[in-house]
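ok so i was messing around last nite and threw this chain in just to see what happens. nothing serious, just curious
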Amino acid sequence: MLVTPADNPYQEPRSGRLTAWGNALLGGAASPDDAAAAVQGEDDAHRVTGLPGEAPDSLHGLTWALGRLRSLGARGLRLALPVAGHPLGLTGPPAFNALALGAGEAVLAVGVPYGLVPEVEVYGPAGDQGVRVLWQCLPVQDAPPADVPSLDEAERELADGLRQATAALVRLDVAGAGPEALRALESFRRRGHRELLAPGYPPRAVRVLESARQVSALLHIAADGHGAAVSASEMAARRETLAPLDRTARRAQVAAYNAAVDELRRD
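result:
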């Protein structure tokens, strides 16, 4: 079964982990082995295919792949979190954008025109499942990424979004959400800052990311049929109300993950 970030809004997107720890590695704040282990997490070993200069069907581990991108001139990595109608963080061409849109996430290298898109496969019976991840490396256009704010801009937008989200969620009676959803959200909150980002990131990026992901989790609960709204028209109105807040939260997440690269550009 193939999965995307939308399948579990409480889990950090794998492209986010690769962006954060890839930047830590490229910036000298993490060793290759530590970076690869952090990206892999509890998954099976990640594999990368399509790297420039390699046979089309060749497979390599993350450590080798990141080293290869660095040798080609990669200075950092940037995150993309596109959805239909909002190619957040993408630069083209259409073939890469379509693949990233299908996955709901991607990583773009800074300094070389290549990007990586994960194909995440969950296998095995319930209760004993494993996860395979294959990263496809493809050419991308050397152009400004779509609709990516600075960390300053994202923080201001998120502050406004949090106020809007609070008012909207009260109106939608999210307090009536089911116990399973609320337990998942509480577990997410208890994790705190420790699992967010990687060495070398500014503390404000961690704060912005934590707030953005909490907003995303709350919006998922509200949009998933919990609370007072029950009719189809009420659910449609609910999704329309929440869509701008989801856009704001995703923009803030991308800005936070990209902060390490943006900091380098200001130095």
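not much to say yet. The radius of gyration is 18 Å.
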